[in-house]
Fold this sequence. Notes:
binds zinc ion, 14 helices, mainly alpha, globular, single chain, 246 residues
Amino acid sequence: MRRRDFVVAAPALILVGCKNMDAGGALSAAGDLAKAASLTDAEVSGYAAQMVAAQDKQAKILGASSKYGQRMAKLTSGLQSFDGLKLDFKVYDSNQINAFACPNGAIRFYSGLMDAMTDDEIRYVIGHEIGHIKLGHSKSRMQTALATSAAQKTAASSGNTAVAVLADSQIGDLMAKVVVAQHSQSNENAADDYAVQQFLTKIGSNKKGAVTALEKLAAMSGGGGGWTSTHPAPKERAERMKKLIG
Ligand SMILES: [Zn+2]
Protein backbone atom coordinates (compact mmCIF):
# COMPACT_ATOMS: atom_id res chain seq x y z
CA MET A 1 0.00 0.00 0.00
CA ARG A 2 1.42 3.32 -0.99
CA ARG A 3 0.22 5.47 1.83
CA ARG A 4 1.91 8.60 0.56
CA ASP A 5 -0.35 8.43 -2.46
CA PHE A 6 -2.99 10.04 -0.30
CA VAL A 7 -1.18 13.31 -0.41
CA VAL A 8 0.09 13.42 -3.95
CA ALA A 9 -1.80 13.98 -7.16
CA ALA A 10 -4.92 15.17 -5.37
CA PRO A 11 -7.43 16.48 -7.89
CA ALA A 12 -8.57 20.05 -7.44
CA LEU A 13 -11.81 19.07 -5.82
CA ILE A 14 -10.08 17.57 -2.81
CA LEU A 15 -8.29 20.84 -2.18
CA VAL A 16 -11.52 22.76 -1.90
CA GLY A 17 -12.00 21.65 1.67
CA CYS A 18 -13.55 18.85 3.56
CA LYS A 19 -14.92 18.54 7.02
CA ASN A 20 -15.30 22.27 7.49
CA MET A 21 -17.94 22.27 4.82
CA ASP A 22 -20.18 19.68 6.39
CA ALA A 23 -23.93 19.84 6.47
CA GLY A 24 -24.14 20.87 10.14
CA GLY A 25 -23.64 24.55 9.49
CA ALA A 26 -25.51 24.38 6.25
CA LEU A 27 -28.65 23.12 7.92
CA SER A 28 -28.89 26.09 10.25
CA ALA A 29 -30.65 28.24 7.68
CA ALA A 30 -34.23 27.01 7.88
CA GLY A 31 -35.34 28.99 4.87
CA ASP A 32 -32.64 27.50 2.68
CA LEU A 33 -33.54 24.06 3.90
CA ALA A 34 -37.17 24.53 2.97
CA LYS A 35 -36.15 25.54 -0.53
CA ALA A 36 -33.86 22.56 -0.86
CA ALA A 37 -36.53 20.17 0.35
CA SER A 38 -38.89 21.44 -2.31
CA LEU A 39 -36.59 20.33 -5.12
CA THR A 40 -38.00 17.35 -6.96
CA ASP A 41 -36.06 14.13 -7.53
CA ALA A 42 -35.75 15.05 -11.20
CA GLU A 43 -34.23 18.42 -10.32
CA VAL A 44 -31.77 16.93 -7.85
CA SER A 45 -30.83 14.34 -10.46
CA GLY A 46 -30.46 17.00 -13.16
CA TYR A 47 -28.08 19.08 -11.06
CA ALA A 48 -26.15 15.97 -10.07
CA ALA A 49 -25.78 15.06 -13.75
CA GLN A 50 -24.27 18.48 -14.47
CA MET A 51 -21.91 18.13 -11.55
CA VAL A 52 -20.72 14.68 -12.60
CA ALA A 53 -20.33 15.73 -16.24
CA ALA A 54 -18.04 18.56 -15.13
CA GLN A 55 -16.07 16.24 -12.89
CA ASP A 56 -15.73 13.64 -15.66
CA LYS A 57 -14.41 16.34 -17.96
CA GLN A 58 -11.84 17.46 -15.43
CA ALA A 59 -10.69 13.94 -14.59
CA LYS A 60 -8.83 11.53 -16.80
CA ILE A 61 -11.20 8.63 -17.35
CA LEU A 62 -9.72 5.18 -17.78
CA GLY A 63 -11.90 3.89 -20.59
CA ALA A 64 -13.37 0.54 -21.48
CA SER A 65 -10.21 -0.66 -23.23
CA SER A 66 -7.92 0.09 -20.27
CA LYS A 67 -6.98 -2.48 -17.64
CA TYR A 68 -9.04 -0.57 -15.06
CA GLY A 69 -12.02 -0.11 -17.37
CA GLN A 70 -12.06 -3.82 -18.14
CA ARG A 71 -11.85 -4.77 -14.48
CA MET A 72 -14.63 -2.36 -13.57
CA ALA A 73 -16.82 -3.63 -16.42
CA LYS A 74 -16.38 -7.17 -15.12
CA LEU A 75 -17.17 -6.15 -11.54
CA THR A 76 -20.27 -4.19 -12.56
CA SER A 77 -21.56 -6.58 -15.20
CA GLY A 78 -25.35 -6.69 -14.93
CA LEU A 79 -25.42 -3.67 -12.61
CA GLN A 80 -26.55 -1.05 -15.10
CA SER A 81 -29.69 -1.16 -13.04
CA PHE A 82 -29.95 -2.44 -9.49
CA ASP A 83 -32.67 -2.18 -6.85
CA GLY A 84 -34.66 0.25 -9.00
CA LEU A 85 -31.66 2.51 -9.66
CA LYS A 86 -30.05 3.26 -12.99
CA LEU A 87 -26.30 3.14 -12.45
CA ASP A 88 -23.29 4.40 -14.37
CA PHE A 89 -19.74 3.44 -13.40
CA LYS A 90 -16.47 5.05 -14.45
CA VAL A 91 -12.85 4.95 -13.27
CA TYR A 92 -10.72 8.07 -12.77
CA ASP A 93 -6.98 7.92 -13.23
CA SER A 94 -5.82 9.03 -9.79
CA ASN A 95 -3.64 7.58 -7.02
CA GLN A 96 -6.26 8.54 -4.48
CA ILE A 97 -7.98 5.77 -2.62
CA ASN A 98 -11.44 7.11 -3.19
CA ALA A 99 -14.89 6.61 -4.67
CA PHE A 100 -18.11 8.60 -4.69
CA ALA A 101 -21.75 8.31 -5.68
CA CYS A 102 -24.23 10.90 -6.91
CA PRO A 103 -28.03 10.86 -6.72
CA ASN A 104 -28.35 10.47 -10.50
CA GLY A 105 -26.75 7.02 -10.21
CA ALA A 106 -23.22 8.00 -11.21
CA ILE A 107 -20.57 6.08 -9.26
CA ARG A 108 -16.94 6.98 -9.74
CA PHE A 109 -13.91 5.00 -8.62
CA TYR A 110 -10.34 6.29 -8.44
CA SER A 111 -7.75 3.89 -9.80
CA GLY A 112 -5.83 4.10 -6.51
CA LEU A 113 -8.71 2.40 -4.72
CA MET A 114 -8.82 -0.33 -7.36
CA ASP A 115 -5.08 -0.92 -6.98
CA ALA A 116 -5.45 -1.24 -3.23
CA MET A 117 -8.37 -3.64 -3.17
CA THR A 118 -9.32 -7.14 -4.24
CA ASP A 119 -12.39 -7.78 -6.37
CA ASP A 120 -14.44 -8.77 -3.31
CA GLU A 121 -13.40 -5.59 -1.52
CA ILE A 122 -14.31 -3.44 -4.50
CA ARG A 123 -17.70 -5.17 -4.66
CA TYR A 124 -18.28 -4.11 -1.06
CA VAL A 125 -17.40 -0.49 -1.94
CA ILE A 126 -19.76 -0.67 -4.94
CA GLY A 127 -22.53 -1.90 -2.65
CA HIS A 128 -21.76 0.77 -0.08
CA GLU A 129 -21.93 3.55 -2.67
CA ILE A 130 -25.17 2.16 -4.12
CA GLY A 131 -26.46 2.19 -0.54
CA HIS A 132 -25.76 5.91 -0.24
CA ILE A 133 -27.87 6.48 -3.35
CA LYS A 134 -30.65 4.02 -2.51
CA LEU A 135 -31.02 5.26 1.07
CA GLY A 136 -31.27 8.88 -0.07
CA HIS A 137 -28.00 10.06 1.51
CA SER A 138 -26.64 11.32 -1.81
CA LYS A 139 -29.88 13.12 -2.53
CA SER A 140 -30.06 14.87 0.83
CA ARG A 141 -26.44 15.99 0.52
CA MET A 142 -27.24 17.38 -2.88
CA GLN A 143 -30.34 19.15 -1.58
CA THR A 144 -28.40 20.67 1.29
CA ALA A 145 -25.61 21.71 -1.04
CA LEU A 146 -28.03 23.27 -3.49
CA ALA A 147 -29.68 25.22 -0.69
CA THR A 148 -26.43 26.65 0.61
CA SER A 149 -24.21 26.94 -2.41
CA ALA A 150 -23.66 29.51 -5.08
CA ALA A 151 -26.04 27.44 -7.18
CA GLN A 152 -28.96 28.25 -4.90
CA LYS A 153 -30.09 31.37 -6.69
CA THR A 154 -29.96 29.73 -10.08
CA ALA A 155 -31.76 26.62 -8.86
CA ALA A 156 -34.43 28.71 -7.11
CA SER A 157 -34.99 30.91 -10.14
CA SER A 158 -35.75 27.90 -12.30
CA GLY A 159 -38.88 27.23 -10.27
CA ASN A 160 -39.88 23.66 -9.63
CA THR A 161 -40.32 22.66 -13.20
CA ALA A 162 -36.94 23.05 -14.86
CA VAL A 163 -33.32 22.36 -14.15
CA ALA A 164 -31.23 25.48 -14.66
CA VAL A 165 -27.83 25.35 -16.27
CA LEU A 166 -25.22 26.00 -13.62
CA ALA A 167 -22.06 28.04 -14.10
CA ASP A 168 -18.67 26.35 -13.65
CA SER A 169 -18.09 28.11 -10.34
CA GLN A 170 -21.46 26.93 -9.05
CA ILE A 171 -20.64 23.38 -10.05
CA GLY A 172 -17.28 23.59 -8.27
CA ASP A 173 -19.03 24.73 -5.13
CA LEU A 174 -21.50 21.85 -5.35
CA MET A 175 -18.70 19.33 -5.81
CA ALA A 176 -17.03 20.56 -2.66
CA LYS A 177 -20.22 20.13 -0.67
CA VAL A 178 -21.51 16.89 -2.16
CA VAL A 179 -18.43 14.85 -2.97
CA VAL A 180 -15.87 16.09 -0.47
CA ALA A 181 -18.11 16.50 2.56
CA GLN A 182 -18.05 13.75 5.15
CA HIS A 183 -20.93 11.31 5.55
CA SER A 184 -22.39 10.97 9.04
CA GLN A 185 -21.63 7.88 11.08
CA SER A 186 -25.23 6.73 10.94
CA ASN A 187 -25.28 7.06 7.16
CA GLU A 188 -22.03 5.12 6.98
CA ASN A 189 -23.41 2.27 9.05
CA ALA A 190 -26.62 2.21 7.02
CA ALA A 191 -24.66 2.09 3.75
CA ASP A 192 -22.45 -0.69 5.15
CA ASP A 193 -25.52 -2.69 6.16
CA TYR A 194 -26.99 -2.17 2.71
CA ALA A 195 -23.74 -3.31 1.07
CA VAL A 196 -23.68 -6.57 3.02
CA GLN A 197 -27.35 -7.41 3.58
CA GLN A 198 -28.74 -6.22 0.27
CA PHE A 199 -26.07 -5.85 -2.39
CA LEU A 200 -23.59 -8.63 -1.62
CA THR A 201 -26.43 -10.98 -0.68
CA LYS A 202 -28.25 -10.36 -3.96
CA ILE A 203 -25.21 -10.72 -6.20
CA GLY A 204 -24.02 -13.74 -4.20
CA SER A 205 -20.57 -12.37 -3.46
CA ASN A 206 -18.16 -13.06 -0.62
CA LYS A 207 -19.11 -10.73 2.23
CA LYS A 208 -15.73 -10.88 3.92
CA GLY A 209 -14.59 -8.24 1.43
CA ALA A 210 -16.50 -5.70 3.55
CA VAL A 211 -14.37 -6.50 6.59
CA THR A 212 -11.01 -6.64 4.84
CA ALA A 213 -11.69 -3.48 2.82
CA LEU A 214 -12.48 -1.55 5.99
CA GLU A 215 -9.46 -3.02 7.76
CA LYS A 216 -7.26 -1.88 4.90
CA LEU A 217 -8.75 1.60 5.07
CA ALA A 218 -8.26 1.68 8.84
CA ALA A 219 -4.60 0.73 8.42
CA MET A 220 -4.19 3.54 5.91
CA SER A 221 -6.15 6.25 7.68
CA GLY A 222 -4.14 9.10 8.99
CA GLY A 223 -2.76 9.67 5.53
CA GLY A 224 -5.43 12.28 4.99
CA GLY A 225 -7.85 12.69 2.13
CA GLY A 226 -9.47 9.92 0.17
CA TRP A 227 -12.31 7.66 1.07
CA THR A 228 -11.54 7.64 4.80
CA SER A 229 -12.00 11.41 5.00
CA THR A 230 -15.47 11.21 3.49
CA HIS A 231 -16.35 7.81 4.95
CA PRO A 232 -15.31 7.91 8.63
CA ALA A 233 -14.33 5.36 11.29
CA PRO A 234 -13.29 2.35 9.20
CA LYS A 235 -11.92 0.38 12.18
CA GLU A 236 -15.20 0.43 14.10
CA ARG A 237 -17.09 -0.33 10.92
CA ALA A 238 -14.88 -3.35 10.19
CA GLU A 239 -15.81 -4.69 13.65
CA ARG A 240 -19.50 -4.08 12.98
CA MET A 241 -19.29 -5.89 9.65
CA LYS A 242 -17.53 -8.85 11.25
CA LYS A 243 -20.42 -9.24 13.69
CA LEU A 244 -23.01 -8.75 10.96
CA ILE A 245 -21.50 -11.44 8.76
CA GLY A 246 -20.99 -13.75 11.76
ZN1 LIG B 1 -20.00 5.98 2.81
